[in-house]
Specification:
Layout lengths: L1 E9 L4 H10 L1 H5 L4 E10 L4 E8 L2 H8 L2 H9 L4 E9 L9
Antiparallel strand pairs: 1-3, 1-4, 2-3
Length: about 100
């Protein structure tokens, strides 16, 4: 399993448009083959920080997601208007999450 967590940073003018676009991708992304979870949340509106959490069955599923026209369009439309601090974790079947 591939788990992606992190923050997306943008300016106050871009924040509403970027956040709305990211949220609009959540439901379609959750329907993709290999998507285990896909969430975007407003972490700190004053600082322009969005929280991202995604889970994918494998690298092939994530690669297919990143190749979608909707994801490519998002990246093109907001190119240079955000930065991120994202961590990608590979979780094996033998690892257990603590609750």
């Amino acid at each position: 399993m591939i788990v992606i967590t992190g923050q997306i940073y943008t300016d106050p003018e871009t924040l509403p448009k970027l956040y709305a676009r990211l949220k609009s991708l959540c439901d379609p992304s959750r329907q993709e083959d290999g998507c285990l979870f896909y969430h975007m949340g407003m972490e700190d509106e004053a600082k322009g920080t969005i929280m991202a959490m995604e889970g994918w069955r494998d690298q092939a599923s994530l690669d297919a997601h990143l190749a979608l026209p909707s994801i490519k369009a998002l990246l093109e439309d907001f190119e240079g208007k955000f930065s991120n601090d994202v961590q990608i974790h590979e979780v094996s079947g033998s690892q257990r999450m603590l609750v």
